[in-house]
Amino acid sequence: MSATESDDDPVSALRGVRTSIKWTRYAPDVLPLFVAEMDFGVAPQIQEALIERVRMSDLGYLDGPGPLAPAFAGFAADRWSWIVPEDRIHLATDVSVGIVETLRIALPEGGRVAITPPVYPPFFELIDEARCEVAEVPLAEQWGTYSLDLDGLERAFAGGVSVFLLCNPHNPVGLVHDRETLERLAAIAARYDVLVISDEIHAPLTHPGVVFTPFARVAEPAGARSVCVTSASKGWNLAGVKCSVIVAGDARTAALLDSLNEEVACRTSILGLHANLAAYRSSREWLDDAIDRIVANDRLLARLLAEHLPGVIYHRPRAGYLAWLDFRGIGLGDDPAVPIREHAYVALNSGLTFGREGRGFARLNLACSPETLREAVFRIASAYPSSAQEAPVWWSAGIPARG
Fold first, then answer.
1. Which domains are delineated in the chain?
2. Which helix (DSSP H) or strand (DSSP E) does residue 145 occupy?
3. How confident is the model over 173-193, as pLDDT tens digits?
4. For 168, which DSSP code?
């Protein structure tokens, strides 16, 4: 079964069988398009891998990545031409844990960690959990196009920032940093000996025609230290099975990661390991089908907004299934997710949680059926009919239409 052949169940049917927060946080009449979980059915190969582990009563502890190391390394080589030494791969419960544990050993006495808002909300909390201080260097934005502020990052590095937490691809704007930008970042990080922790969890979901570059590929040749934290959880919809990898990008950082507490691996789910293993080894066709379906929904959303909500600016993603929407033009206040949920019965992520730069924005999940997406736009347009105004000339965020 491919992703395109899997569950096209209406929201009501999914709500009746799924028990995650996506389906239980809000009342049944609210469309859940917030948390980053797909509505698609899990790949059959992953289902069978999990069932087989339960059949074999294989539910014990782990002490390392085992077969997951070559499986991830093979996927990285095939998809991104990134050659990963298997002994540089470590286990963690999830990407958030991988970030915190890396910060703890990299900055045992605390320190300043740079992030680039608007950015994945837990970054703020994870830095605090590791007893470090957040240093904000917002993304540069011009005419709806986002990029890293490399000059700002260099000032932050020169001012005492010890670690940079990179989001690659960037959540929520769907930005895939190009190789030249990453090479310049690597040169700056090497100059100031800043460790770059690159969250690359959305990388498997890079859209067709877009080139993803793992930061470690350009960091090591530049003499920069780096760590990649990633998982199959976003690409294959496996958030709840709890397994990720922490990958050292260079020899110095490999020695650092060797000092991780053994409990970091032991807390990882054995079911998660086998789900990730099946994803990387045997579920690549399912992934490609899921990406095709997401890209089709991206095109659909662009058309629906142009027709029904032209005052909303859509920053179209180049990876992942998260749509960053600017509602400032239709007057819904600093946190449009609240009135949209209360009056249109559509649950989106609040832009405010992504940092001050998220005022007036909300994030929408594209990994649903086209029918769900249409219903969401129709509900919002019906709740705010005055929003049907002329669209700004840069409505599509400077990204050409894709088909």
1. 3-43+285-387 (3.90.1150.10), 46-282 (3.40.640.10)
2. strand 145-147
3. 999 999 999 999 999 999 999
4. S
